[in-house]
Every structure is written in structure tokens, then in C-alpha cells.
Sequence to fold (471 residues):
Amino acid sequence: MLENASRRLSALPSIGRLLETESAMALVRSFGRTAVTGVLREVLEERRSALRTGRAVDLDLFAILAQSSEILKTRSLPSLRPVFNMTGTVLHTNLGRSALPDAAIAAIAEVAHGACTLEFDVRAGARGDRDTHVVSDICAITGATDATVVNNNAAAIMLVLNTLAPGRDVPVSRGELVEIGGSFRIPDIMARSGCHLVEVGTTNRTHLSDFANAIGPQTAMIMKVHASNYVIEGFTKVVPEKELASLCRDHGIPFVNDLGSGTLVNLEDFGLPHEPTPMDALRSGADIVTFSGDKLLGGPQAGIIVGRKDLIAQIKSNPMRRALRCDKLTIAALSEVLRIYRNPDRLAEQLPVLSDLSRPVDEIRTVAERVLAAFKRFLGGKGDAIVVDCYSEIGSGALPMRTLASAGVGLYPSPDEPSEGKALKRIAAALRALPVPVIGRIHNGALILDMRCLRDEEKLIEQLSHHGSVQ
Ligand SMILES: *Cc1c(COP(=O)(O)O)cnc(C)c1O
Fold:
């Protein structure tokens, strides 16, 4: 037995012998000698230890090279790469939120190559302001008198608080002390921005008098936070924005409204439920409104601050803004997305977020029918695939209670699998292991793949047919 193992050990090809082959040389050209030698060594070592423990291994030179090539290819994949979002959550924060329109992607590439007019006024030949590329469109769309843009909405809120209320009191309704996920909590943000949070009212009911009683000489502003990812129902009372605005005016303090998603259109025009817009918030008397660029707006990650000119000027002169500013890629993309909003008739067609959200369920079901066979093949007898009705969510905290009727492919493990749960996890893992990972959602004993956001059907079918399958 031992003798046999040692004879087989000596039958393993050496590193030198492997490196002389045509295929190893091709690998060296692609991945470099150090990486190839390292992986060959690993693969040989793995086989050696298998032999020592008496396991069967393939000693063939070509098998060793093929395995090494697979390892090198997998390891050279960037860790940040595209996936198929079939979770049913359109604006999925962990999957990068909104898909950008082609024009915005082209604009990013254009400025990424080299120098651009980021902070340069070409006509005057003098230093410019990076906000100028987006501010006039933001103001035209929202009706605001001025605006500025930072890295994301969390940054926008911090900057507003730190500018308008450092060391002072900010009353917020107890029903609006939001946690957004990823550790964004209003009370923590307040503290880090140097403000003193004054909790007002109760979880379910807050009255105007609660706010009026909370205002004192230390009060810097009143803040309203859109309860984007939850709903308080039943015996509830929220103070209307107009009343808060007028209370603030009486005391000579600003009224700030954090909208979160801040869609720039009336979503009902697209067959979707209503979500408050920055235009609504400004009309209701907010002095400052903040919202995200990559939620319902459908642009790049950004935080947009709109409102009164004098307050925006103060915000822009806060030294913290330098640390929170957007880069040229974001500004290029945002400017292009805002340009699309100039023509509202073509929005649903040109803005991927809106086209995904307003996609008719019949069309989604046809997509599911077209890709069904490829999923059946991929399962290879380890289960069954059928077209199913399902529900999508908008995501990123927008309209948490509203789902959108959708359709997809449901993958069910074969009934003779000993454990349904484990079999489902294996199917999900095999789909995640594809070159463009397919991400679904496990629900009621099935892996549901919602087809709402699928654009490249050919790519999906191609990789399901040519790469791996369920083991
Ligand atoms: C999403 C959200 C934020 C955070 O915005 P980011 O762009 O993710 O930084 C803040 N407030 C509300 C109400 C939100 O919904």
C-alpha cells in the first residue's frame, strides 16, 4: 500500500516539466510566471497529500494543467463585477442600487480619460465650481432657488446638520428616528454632526404643540425625516409639513426635510404608488430638502441638497463639504441623468430604474418563458424550473409596503433530495458561481428568480448553457 503510494507520488510531473508545456506557457503569458508557478505548486501539493491519504487522484499532466488554468481564471476575476439582480428588489443597496442610462455611462467614460472642466470655467479661463454642471437642471426640475451635491444622502444630512445646527438643539418626531440599514441612524448622525437631538412627541403621535414646546433659545432648526422603510399604522398623528414650516418661520429657524428617495417625477404617472417629491416638500415650506441620487432618481450615488440660497451658501462654505464632495465621474453621470429629465415623455424608456419599475407584468412573464429552458438544462435533473408569479419591491427603503406584481422562474429541488433546504442552497450557490453571478431569493421552498430587471437575456442563456451546473 505505502509502496504503491510512493510509486504514484513519483509519477506526479515536476513543476519544471509542467512549465515546458504549450498550455503552461500560454498561462504564463496571461497571468505571469509567479502566479502560474504558485498555482501549479498548490495543485501538485493537493494531489500529493491526497495520495498520501490513499485517495484516488488524476496524475495526468493535462488534468493538472486544466485545473490550474481554472483556478487562475477564477482568481483573476475582479471582486467588484456585474451580477444578474433577480432578487426582485429593483434598487438593491448591496447590489449597487440604480442601473445608469447609457448616456450617463458614456459621460463617465468621456471624463475618465483625462482632464475635464470639473472646476474650470472655460469661457472666463478661471477657476469654476463643480456644482455648476448640475445645479441649473436640479433647480429647474425641483423649483429650488439653489442646490449643491455631495457624496450621498447620508453626507448631505451630516453637512446640513453640521452647518445649520452645530452645538445646538434639533427637534425630531419620535416616529421619525429612522435606521436606514448599514448603520445609518438619525440619532447617531445627529451626534456625529455635533447637534443635540431633541425627541418630540411619541412613536405613533406627534402634535404641533409638541414641537412648539420643544423650541427654545438653543433650537437651531426643525428636521423632518421621511420614514422611508417602515410604516406606522393605526392611531397615528403626523404634523403636516405646512404647519411645521410656519412654526419655523415664526421662530426664524429653518425647516429641513430629509426625503430619502426623492423621486423627481410623479410616480403615479408610471402606474406606481405616490412617493413625495422634493417639489412637494419645497412647496410645503421646507427651507432645505435632501435626497439620494441613486434611489428613485435613477442616477449615480450622490446626495442632493436643495433650498434657500442663503442656507445653501452657508452649507457650501462649511469646510466639511470638501471631504464630502462628489468626484468628476459622479458629476458627469448625474448631469447626463438630469438631462434625460428635461424630456419627461421619454423618461420611462431612457431611465433604467423607471423602465424596470414600470415594466408590464405580461412582458416580464414572456421573458421568464424565454429563459425557462436554459434554467431547466442548468438544473440537469437536480430539480425543476417553472414560470411563477412573484412580487418585486422598489427597494432602498422606498414605499416599503407596496409590492409590484412580477413574474420569474422558480427553481424547485427534486423531491428525492434528502434535504430540501440544502438542495436549494446548492442550486443558489451554483448560480452564484457563474461568471456573471445570478442572485435570486429563497421563498417557500423555491429559489425565485424575478425577471423584472433582466436586460441581457442572451448573456444569461449563454452562461447557463456553457458554464457548470448544479452538483
Ligand atoms: C436612503 C436614505 C438615507 C441615506 O441615503 P444614502 O444616499 O444611502 O446615503 C437617508 N435618509 C432617508 C430617509 C433615506 O431613505
Q: What stands out?
A: The mean pLDDT is 93. The CA atoms of residues 318 and 469 lie 55 Å apart. Residues 152-154, 178, 180, 184, 225-226, 228, 258, 260-261, 292, 303, 396-397 surround pyridoxal-5'-phosphate (CB under 6 Å). The first strand starts at residue 84 and ends at 85.
